[in-house]
């Protein structure tokens, strides 16, 4: 019988009475192992301190505050908690927010903060949808809520975090040991804002978007040299990724989700060919090339000016289906097909040249045009132009699907 050193591959010589208790071959190895453990402990302590300044945990805290309880974290294992944090972290491109399937403020229950109850959907659609509910998701019955897990408005972020840690009984510690916990990129902006106006609460600022912080900084006359410009991508990929995620774990609805995803891929190709629709995702084809049916790969809109109405149909369907709506997918596919044509070789429609009504008054850029034509009541460029001529050029209040 021989045993190896816990720090290196050397076999420990059996030449002393201490052999049984020896873990290391030498003092050098013993010291090295000690230092490594110490560094690990320090690292964990550092991560623990970072939690309160971490974007994902800030989001969790905010959600607990909104729900009034930490029991929205009911039923988590380390695995499901990690998946949920990763979903929060890997925010999809476009004007999207995390939407709850079972609503946080349901009638008799509270929607859980769990990856199986969340998806990225359009911010506008989500606001419009409110606390409605179709089916599915995960929730906890209000009768099961305990007073000791309540979160009231007066509690600070730190106090809520402590409650969360207690509620999750050890999950946070194990999460920290295995995952990086970085400080928020908002930190620097928040510090500068508080420098400019110490009366503003840090907790409040953490709950705000980066955009809000940047506006606030500008308002306070602080420089914006560090503000990074993010290229705009459409939320199309967010929806298709959402469908893909639920295909993985919603066995019952899998056929519906798959069928809709196929239609979405076809729709993307048609929209991608109309520049003004701004349907662009850098990684769309990398992710979904394999799902392209060659029969439909040359998809184009019969009437390119109907792109916005077409896109609305797709976004609304994806949003509702992710929310648990039982879509008649055959009927929907038929409707989508009625917009499409499949020439032998499709082409890209660049710029506004497919708009025939170019006249001197027409000084709007293509981008502005795209924005305006997304007004729900203005369904086509034709209508926009008619409105323009009649003097109603108000830019749309609601931009349900501008990209
Ligand atoms: Zn050794």
Mind telling me the C-alpha Rg?
27 Å
Could you describe the largest sheet, including whether it forms a barrel? 2 strands, antiparallel
Give the overall form. Answer: globular
Helix content: 40-55%
Strand content: under 5%
How large is the count of helical segments?
16
Can you summarize this structure?
With 403 residues, this protein is mainly α. The chain has 16 helices and six strands.
How would you characterize this protein structure?
With 403 residues, the chain is mainly alpha-helical. The chain has three domains: 1-42, no CATH class; 54-178, no CATH class; 231-403, no CATH class. It is built from 16 helices and six strands. The chain has a two-stranded antiparallel sheet. A two-stranded antiparallel ribbon has the order 2-4. The longest helix is centred in the N-terminal third of the chain and has 24 residues, at 27-50. It is globular. The structure holds zinc ion. Zinc ion binds next to loops.
Features of this protein?
5% strand; globular; mainly alpha; 45% helix; binds zinc ion; two-stranded antiparallel ribbon; 16 helices
Task: Summarize the SSE layout with pairings.
Layout: H1 27-50, H2 55-67, H3 78-89, E1 96-100, E2 109-111, E3 118-122, H4 123-129, E4 139-141, H5 157-167, H6 171-178, H7 186-196, H8 202-206, H9 210-219, H10 236-249, H11 254-272, H12 284-288, E5 300-301, H13 307-322, H14 329-337, E6 340-341, H15 366-372, H16 381-390
Antiparallel strand pairs: 1-3, 2-4, 5-6
Helix pairs in contact: 2-3, 2-5, 7-9, 10-11, 10-13, 11-13
Bound molecules: zinc ion.
The site of zinc ion has 8 residues, from loops.
